[in-house]
Amino acid sequence: MKPVDLRSDTITKPTDAMRRVMAEAEVGDDVFGEDPSVNALQDKVAELFGMEAALFVTSGTMGNQLAIKCHTEPGDEVICEENCHSFNYEAGGPAFLSAVQLRPLPGVRGVITTEQIDAAIRPPDHHFPRSQLVVIENTHNRAGGAIFPLEEIKKIRALTRERHLKVHLDGARIWNAHIATGIPLQEYGRHFDSITVCLSKGLGAPVGSVLAGSRAFIDRAHRFRKIWGGGMRQAGIIAAAGLYAIEHHLARLAEDHARAQKLAQCLSSHPKVRVDMQATQTNIVIADFHETGLKAPDIVVTMKEHGLYCIAFSPTKLRMVTHLDLKDEDIDRAVQIIDKVLQEKLT
Length: 347
Ligand code: TLP
What we know:
By secondary structure, this protein is an alpha/beta fold. Helices cover 42% and strands 16% of the residues. Helix 7 (150-162) links the parallel strand 5 (131-137) and strand 6. Residues 8, 10, 59-61, 64, 85, 89, 137, 141, 170, 172, 198, 200, 209 line the site of ligand TLP.
């Protein structure tokens, strides 16, 4: 029987309909700016978020790193939350590519407050790095798909305007926040200088992310994308998949959220397993096993033997992510496997 794969929403394969659209996509040389499908995708994302311009990039990592590069100068400081992707999973990119230092602040469910940011902004003195940028992640991956509240975003925006800092949104999963809250994408867009969105996560496209911002910012990002070897030629084949994904796979994210709730409830019904249900707002479930004395990597191995794939997120935590390639039956099976493994291991 095919395993149930909950390792990430990045593992989905393009559907037959998406592959047809890709095969038929109009293409051109995007390094000359002549790929109609890439141009249409960039225009679409810019419009959705109310930004002036957008740039198709290879990955979420490239989008975030370009944003850091374009908003800063070497020696600057970037304020972020300590569990965010740019700080933990982008291979030291900010130091390597932009020669900036990060100032990670402790968050609650991925949220850092205006007060924390205000206190972290450096005074204008040549002893200090220049505080230049704040990075926000919404939804927050390591916080279990938690949504960054719009009210806090608005306050951060007001503060950073006053203190002359830029704000970047790592919106790899902003689509999930939009569907879960009903907050329009443009409303999110209004409060940021730049946004990275991913097409290859919940939306189910095979490759690609889009960076959006002002025309001048995107022009600068375009240059660095070229320097970093990210200029692609007939990229319309993959851009077409992204456009299709936005059109056809956005509303259905609600299904992923309902399925994640079911998994979270199953896991948290075990007396020694903890799931932060307040954080479980979208398609990510993080279960903490510390009270069981079990080790997450061992549970991952046993789950895999039973046909359920997930990943260890810490020595005691597992992450499960719902996505486009799952059906209700897969969730039922996942629930059965979780029950069985926990029964085996905890009795
Ligand atoms: N996240 C991946 C892993 O790197 C952990 C995943 O499976 O969730 N921002 C956020 C919030 C992300 O979760 C990710 C990918 C990225 C950026 C980077 O995207 P890619 O993988 O396209 O570089």
